[in-house]
Amino acid sequence: MTTLHQGPDGMVAFSKGAPEVIVASCTRQRTGQEESPLDEEAVRIILDTAKEMTTEALRVLAVACKPTASLDGAEKEMVFLGLAGMIDPPRPEAAEAIKTCTAAGIRPVMITGDHPGTGEAVARELGLLKTGHVVTGAELESMSNAEFEQKVETIEVYARVSPEHKLRVVTALQKKGHVAAMTGDGVNDAPALKKADVGIAMGITGTDVTREAADMILTDDNFASIVGAVEEGRGIFGNVKKYLMYLLSSNIGEIGLIAGAVLTGLPLPLTAVQILYVNLATDGLPALALSVDPPESDLMRHPPRNSRDGIFTRPVIFLMLVGGIWSALINLSVFVWVLESERSVEQAMTLTFLCLIIIQFLKAYNFRSDQHPVFHKTFVNKWLNLAVVWELVLMILIVYVPVLHRPFGTYSLSFADWALVVGLAFTIVPVLELGKWMVRRGWLGPLS
Questions:
Q1: Contact at 8 Å (CB) between 159 and 119?
Q2: pLDDT in tens, 296-350
Q3: Gap between the Cα atoms of 199 and 213, Å rounded
């Protein structure tokens, strides 16, 4: 940048910028009150000094002036004044956030207009630079698109870049199938932010143009907040998946039970009131509790899911079907067994009704994770625990309060009946755990 100022002896121009650019515009240098020619040796010393400063993570600017300047020739035959080194230390949490990104399969890349030495020093301090692959804007321009696309996945730091370079980086990453997020604060970042899958503008230092072009605005200008947002997003997606897996698997079990009884010529195993109770009460509260389930402890140690995949991947559908089909088989078996033991249809319905409810509760705990076993932090979701306890209290009232027997079609159970129902219901646990084991082994493809 060059500015012109009116002085006592005429117009004076002052310039600041990259050392190599400023030096190229200078023919003399000032040392103290004296000026001397800026020869090749002096240029080498200046640039070596600037490079040495960049290795200490300093952002280096050169300063020059031109007395008696005009607008047209302000940046020609200038006098070199010196170097200024400024440090913008990374926030303490940035290094930890980058580690979290790496563990989560997210590859952070630094794109800066600073000297390559400054970018490299900061990247090493943050733990971002592993291969040592640093590319400048000039080197980027010398690469063809095909050559750059081959190398883009290995480059960790881009230095001395211009706006079109940033746009080219984002485009190359997208062509390689990556989801590219770009951060920026200046007007020249706007094209790259617009092109990126997720453009993130700085809320404090960002310009109005940048904020308009971005998809998100980072209110505290903190990289760690982006990582926190990724974790929050993964947690929300995971809870939506748990919610749907639980409800759909439960519905598959109920439909299978009714359809199985109809196809085999048996009486309906549940009354209309019992079906409504299961769907509205028993399914409802545990499902809502799963929607606010605490995120898994290793959430940020899994690679990102494919952006083209929906919730219902093959492993998810498999687990839903396993849970639903096994529930239908067990409940239908209970209904048939009670009928064949010459007990009334009402008794068979009651046992089937209670077995179905207990299986639904056990499914809720199983579907808290599609990877970890049910015994991993089983009761960490207090809302699910409260929902299940509440529903168990209601279930006991329905079974043992005589005034509720007629509307719900139930009767009081003996200890042997409870033992039968609970024992058969618990078979859902090993069945679903076997399904999870198969999923973890990758037998049904990658888990989202």
A1: yes
A2: 888 898 888 887 888 888 999 999 999 999 999 999 999 999 999 888 898 999 9
A3: 7
Would you place residue 162 in the very low, low, confident or very high pLDDT band (cuts 50, 70, 90)?
Answer: confident
d(CA 277, CA 274): 5
**Which phi and psi (to 5°) does residue 236 adopt?**
-65, -45
Q: What is the largest CA-CA distance in the chain?
A: 117
User: Is the torsion defined by CA of 281, 287, 289, 291 positive or negative?
Assistant: negative
Q: At what angle do helices 428-440 and 314-340 cross, to 10 degrees?
A: 160
pTM above 0.85, yes or no: no
CA distance 54 to 443: 51
Angle at 186 between CA 198 and CA 24, to 5 degrees: 130
| Eight-class DSSP state of 188 | G
- Asked whether residue 432 carries a pLDDT value surpassing 80, the answer given is yes
Residue type for position 27: T
- 269 and 332 Cβ atoms separated by less than 8 Å: yes
* Residue 232 structure tokens: 């929050």
6 forms beta bridges with 11
Length of the chain: 448
Q: What is the rounded average pLDDT for all residues in the chain?
A: 91
pLDDT in tens, 10-21: 899 999 999 999
User: Can you tell me the distance from the alpha carbon of 210 to that of 291, in angstroms, rounded to the nearest whole number?
Assistant: 35
Query: Counting Cβ atoms within 10 Å, is residue 432 exposed (0-12), middle (13-18) or buried (19+)?
Result: buried
Instruction: Give the H or E element holding residue 100.
Output: helix 92-103
| Range list of H helices, 264-283 | 272-277
Residue 243 near residue 235 (C-beta atoms within 8 A): no
Q: How far is CA 94 from CA 118, 155, 181, 206, 266, in A?
A: 17, 20, 17, 19, 65
Assigned token pair, 201: 């503008």
Distance CA(178)–CA(155), nearest Å, equals 14
What count of other Cβ atoms lies within 10 Å of the Cβ of residue 151? 13
Report the distance separating Cα 265 and Cα 168, nearest Å: 67
Q: For residues 17 and 20, what is the distance between their CA atoms, to the nearest angstrom?
A: 8
DSSP tag of 299 = G
pLDDT score recorded for residue 284: 86
